[in-house]
Amino acid sequence: MKLILAGLDHTTAPVEIRERLAFSSTDIPAALTRLTTPQGDRQAPLAEAAILSTCNRVEIYGVAHGSSTAQTLVRFLADFHGLAEHQFASTLFFVSGEGVARHLCATAAGLRSLVLGEAQIQGQVRQSFENAQALGSLGPTLHRLFQHALKAGKRARAETSLGLGAASVSQAGVELARRRLGDLAGCTVLLVGGGEVSELAAQNLLANGADRLMIVNRTEARARELAGRYNATAHGFDDLPHCLSRADIVISSTAAPVPIIYREHVAAALAAKAHARGVGASHEPGAMLLIDLAVPRDFAPDVALVPGAHLYTVDDLQDVVRLTLDQRAGAAAAAERIVHEEVSAFEAWCHTQDAVPALTLLRERAEALRNAELERAMRRLADLSPEQLSVVEGLTRSLVNKLLHPPTRRLRDAAAQGDGQRYAAMVSDLFNLESI
Questions:
Q1: Per-residue pLDDT, 279
Q2: DSSP, residue by residue, 265-321
Q3: What number of CA atoms fall less than 13 Å from residue 398's CA on the CB side?
Q4: Does residue 259 have a cis peptide bond before it, meaning omega lies within 30 degrees of 0?
Q5: Nearest-angstrom CA–CA distance, 182 and 305
Q6: Cα separation of 238 and 240, whole Å?
Q7: What is the pLDDT of residue 317?
């Protein structure tokens, strides 16, 4: 068993690359199937696999076959997304062994997020786990690893102050708007998308004084649901051009695979604002602050060329979150200790797997001997009643279990300390298990 991880995140790759390698929710089943299914006489790339794809990271976790390498996963990413390897390979990082467990546990705890302690990542790791579990691409190793990672994330937020203040990319986006515009009171804010990011943005906008919200979503019923909760107006996508022309701030976070707001949309909206200049306008009339929190991006890149359009992406939030890093340094250290504990627990479990083959053979040998001796005794005790037969059966089973308990416990304990292979070899030799 060899754990392997190939990935990229906001520290290694710009949004232009991350969006091209992102996996949508509809991509993941096909991707996991390709990763774990043999093709003809070719071995599957991985024995177990899970994919974590968020706005700030794309990561493939796997249990490698003997022939699986980092290059195997580079080739898979290139083939799946229709890219040449040289377009992204230099932005990838590769981890193996214990480092994979440490990375995933730290990620779930929010220690690898753009916003330290981000709460959303816990749910995203859980979704990655559930996706792989539903498809059957998880085996015992990744299943156990994700359980420890999710536990690390839960403990980090319950036992430290890392998650205080509702840290999120949404909060950072609102803080960016506040820094650029000052008081948000009187600003008209358009939220595009009806997911968790938009909901968190609405909460933070209201907390920072914004009181005129519009929500546009592909499903208007969802927009109405959010609007009712946050005193906003709800709109379908057909109303997007009209809403853009009224907005001072636009925060977008859909799951669209391609941009949904183009240069001509923003240019037309700014022209309409300029025409209405002085009528209820605020904060540089005729201009808009555009914050794109989606990956892939919701705004076409050339929107930034429109005069009066001030476009920011998730990669522009670095300055905003530096203060968060300073404020949470102590909590991060405490969370790192929790991560270490969960990684150690996972490693102990991995070591115990060294004992499993020997214990299985030992149990099989003992059970075969018990059944053979019981069958021989039954031929000599043909007059026993069913109740008496049950007593004899129970006696032999209990005797075998009690005899096997001490070596089983000692072998598991030795394996947890990293000495499982030596003890397994001793058990195999003592009980002549090779002959089974």
A1: 45
A2: HHHHHHHHHHHTTTSS--SSTT-EEEEE--SS-SB-GGGGGSTTEEEEEGGGGHHHH
A3: 6
A4: no
A5: 24
A6: 6
A7: 87
DSSP strand pairing (233-235 vs 212-216): parallel
Instruction: Classify 54 as helix, strand or coil.
Output: strand
Nearest 5°: phi and psi at 248? -90, -35
Asked if residues 50 and 132 have their Cβ atoms less than 8 Å apart, the reply is: yes
Cα dist from 205 to 173, 184, 320, whole Å: 10, 8, 16
Q: What is the pLDDT of residue 415?
A: 64
Q: Using only the alpha carbons of the chain, give its radius of gyration.
A: 29
Nearest CA to 29 out of 11, 15, 54, 49 is that of 49
Report the relative pairing of strands 249-252 and 233-235 from DSSP bridges: unpaired
Main-chain dihedrals φ then ψ at residue 398, nearest 5 degrees: -65, -40
**Residues of the chain with confidence (pLDDT) below 50:** 166, 279-285
* Pairwise CA distance, residues 424 & 436, whole Å: 15
- What whole-number distance in Å separates Cα of residue 398 and Cα of residue 405? 11
Which uninterrupted H or E stretch holds 343? helix 329-352
Identify the burial level of 26 via C-beta atoms within 10 angstroms of its C-beta, where 0-12 means exposed, 13-18 middle and 19 or more buried.
exposed
Residue pair 108/30 in contact by the 8 Å Cβ criterion: no
The one-letter amino acid at 333: A
Please report, in angstroms and rounded to a whole number, the separation of the first and last CA atoms in the chain.
24
The 10 Å Cβ neighbour count of residue 349 is: 17
Q: Is 169 left (phi over 0), alpha (psi -120 to 50) or beta?
A: alpha
Give Cβ neighbours of residue 203 (< 8 Å, ≥ 6 apart). 166, 170, 230
Catalytic positions: 55
Q: Quote the CA–CA distance of 209 and 26 in Å, as a whole number.
A: 37
Q: Which residues pair with 94 in a beta bridge?
A: 6
Residue 110 has a pLDDT of 92
* Separation of alpha carbons 90 and 281, rounded Å: 46
| Residue closest to 288 by CA, chosen among 248, 322, 258, 261 | 248
Half-sphere exposure of 343 (CA within 13 A, CB side): 19
Closest to 265 (Cα-Cα) out of 202, 192, 316, 194: 192
What's the pTM value of the predicted model, to 2 decimals? 0.78
Pairing of strands 309-313, 288-292: parallel
Tokens of 304: 């930034």
* Residues 23 and 58: beta-carbon distance below 8 Å: yes
Tokens in use for 122? Answer: 């816990």
The whole-number pLDDT of residue 166 equals 45
